[in-house]
Amino acid sequence: MVLSLAENIRAFRKERRLTQEQFAEAMGVTVGSVYKWETGQTIPELSMLVEIADFFDTSMDVLLGYRLKDNRIAAIEERLREYCRVRNPEALVEAEKALKKYPNSFEIVHGCAQVYAFFGVGSKDHAETRRALALLEQAKLLISQNHDPEISEQTISGEMASAWLLLGEREKCVELLKKNNAGSVYSDTIGIVLALELKKHEEAESFLAESLLLNTIGLVNSVVGYALVLSARGDYASAKRMLSGLIAYLVPLKEGEKADFVDKLMASMYTVMAHIHTLEGKNAEATECLRSVLAAVRQFDAAPDYGIQTLRYPVYHNDVILDDGLGATAADSIETILDLLRNQNLSRIWKELTNDAR
């Protein structure tokens, strides 16, 4: 039992990435005592064994070597989430306990940083936000432990920028976001801080125009994809509402009557709308949708314009060329969509319309 206890104390300590000095300080004993425990020279007193078991979030049986307990960090994270869900300040107490036990665990350090950032919103002395910043800095140093693909140094920098904004350090916030704006992921945030907080409207416009374009493309992909998911479930009404809302959003982006890339996009939207109509057995409505699609396709392909300058809102990068990735022409794009939808009824209606129009 002595050997098993010694090995377990050492194993638990190393799991926390604690030095003997750090563990000794946490337990209120000397480094020499820890050394003797881990080498089996002495056994902690019963009261100390209870404290050690509690520190490692385990039971006496586990500490003494009867079985191994897993998911200790996961259990802590779940408790923290539950506290935050109801905004219980006990989360901060629990976070500090976790940090004491796992000072070098990326999951714990980053998770506790998020807890402090959450409670920092609305705080008057900003102590929680400053603590969050310090923990985020520490998390960056531990990033090699991270296995979550949604977390990176770039995302942590974004969290730090939010903390600086809460502290009133707007320039620091924008500067940090600009340094980590690969893929323009923070252009919308940079733009709104520049416009709303710093009143730098001219500088803000380029970031906002860029984010408007990127977010519009993202919105199109998300709505069309979701509409297909809903229609596959038989929720045709919700699918059509989503598509109608997207089309209503796209219309004001057009500048004038000339056919432009927005028309090409909307032709794709109406094709998906027609697809849903056929699933409902409403072939007449599907045919009307596809008539509109055919008219838009012919108008665009007669004088194609893939330039961004045709959009209503000013965009600084006028050399940007828009592409839906579906086809070289609007007609090609519709054919690609029809192939992907694999709706024979829809393809038949489209073929009849195109043949009649020749």
Give the helix/strand layout.
Layout: H1 2-15, H2 20-27, H3 31-39, H4 46-55, H5 60-64, H6 72-85, H7 90-101, H8 106-120, H9 127-141, H10 153-166, H11 170-179, H12 187-197, H13 201-232, H14 236-250, H15 261-279, H16 283-302, H17 330-341, H18 344-356
Helix pairs in contact: 2-3, 6-7, 6-8, 7-8, 8-9, 9-10, 10-11, 11-12, 12-13, 13-14, 13-15, 14-15, 15-16, 15-17, 16-18
How would you summarize what this structure contains?
With 358 residues, this protein is mostly helical.
What does this protein look like?
- The protein has 358 residues and is an all-alpha fold.
- It has three domains: 2-64, 434 Repressor (Amino-terminal Domain); 72-180, Serine Threonine Protein Phosphatase 5, Tetratricopeptide repeat; 209-356, Alpha Horseshoe (Serine Threonine Protein Phosphatase 5, Tetratricopeptide repeat), CATH 1.25.40.
- Helices cover 69% and strands 0% of the residues.
- It is built from 18 helices and no strands.
- It has helices at 2-15, 20-27, 31-39, 46-55, 60-64, 72-85, 90-101, 106-120, 127-141, 153-166, 170-179, 187-197, 201-232, 236-250, 261-279, 283-302, 330-341, 344-356.
- Helix 13 (201-232) runs parallel beside helix 15 (261-279).
- The longest helix is centred in the middle third of the chain and has 32 residues, at 201-232.
- The model has no long low-confidence stretch (mean pLDDT 89).
